[in-house]
Amino acid sequence: MSSPDYLTSLFSLAGKVAVVIGGTGELCGAMAEGLAGAGAEVVLVGRNEEKASARLAKIHAAGGKAYFLPSEASDKAQLNNLLEAVLKRSGHVDIVVNGAGVNSPTPFLDITEEEFERIMDINVKGVFLGCQVFGKYLTERGQGGSIINLGSMSGLVPLSRVFTYSASKAAVHNLSKNLAREWAPKNVRVNILVPGFFPAEQNRKVLTPERVASILGHTPAKRFGEAKELIGATLLLAGDAGSFITGAEIVVDGGYHAMTI
């Protein structure tokens, strides 16, 4: 039987630095709290300093270490500056969460090129650039690392009303698996955390009463997930507990993906 000390150390992130892109949002913000609670110094990255301040207050109140840096996920120059700023202040980066994302309920035939490009720019290009900038650092430093990309249930199975979002998340899943294969020899792990249905800012517009009833009818747990319920999977993928996990789609969905009829 494993000792309590061993289990504690297995999930400890003490001495690690975690960059959470999209950390000002609801889901990634909760993940950031979990990473800080496990001992990591967390860098919240986003565009809204006010939202970041509220999350930082929670982390600091719990005794965690965290700070905010502004950056646009789909701008490579800004991400390079972000990496440089983190290295200057924290000295290193060990964990990267690519979680910036947007959604839209527009019917397929009404989707404009501008809307399509905007969603792809953030959801796909943002992850692509985050992996490129931070992956280059992690693979070259030779000490391994963990990249966690936020996928979606709609990246696994087609879901109605979110056409561009679904296509963008399917691309994130595919890119993540390709990078997992490419970087495994360098001990840089790339995994996809796949939330089921969690009420969040980006999906509130599509959660009509009819859609909520449909979702809950297809979810064995009969409820939506709570943001804090992503923390366990995050800690598994972030540290030594998940040292042999790469290229995985870790689904946290209350059984949604297991339900057929």
Automatic annotation (TrEMBL):
Origin species: Rariglobus hedericola
Alphabetic keyword roster: NADP, Oxidoreductase
Top-level taxon in the UniProt lineage: Bacteria
Lineage per the UniProt record: Bacteria, Pseudomonadati, Verrucomicrobiota, Opitutia, Opitutales
Coiled-coil spans in chain: none
UniProt cross-references to Pfam families, sorted A to Z: adh_short_C2
GO molecular function: oxidoreductase activity
Similarity comment: family membership: Belongs to the short-chain dehydrogenases/reductases (SDR) family.
Record-linked InterPro entries: KR_dom, NAD(P)-bd_dom_sf, Sc_DH/Rdtase_CS, SDR_fam, Sec_Metab_Biosynth_SDR
SUPFAM superfamilies: NAD(P)-binding Rossmann-fold domains
Keyword Oxidoreductase part of the UniProt annotation: yes
PANTHER family in the cross-refs: 7-ALPHA-HYDROXYSTEROID DEHYDROGENASE (PTHR43618), OXIDOREDUCTASE, SHORT-CHAIN DEHYDROGENASE_REDUCTASE FAMILY (AFU_ORTHOLOGUE AFUA_1G14540) (PTHR43618:SF12)
Name of this protein: SDR family oxidoreductase
Record bears the keyword Nucleotide-binding: no
Annotated ranges, domain Ketoreductase: 16-156
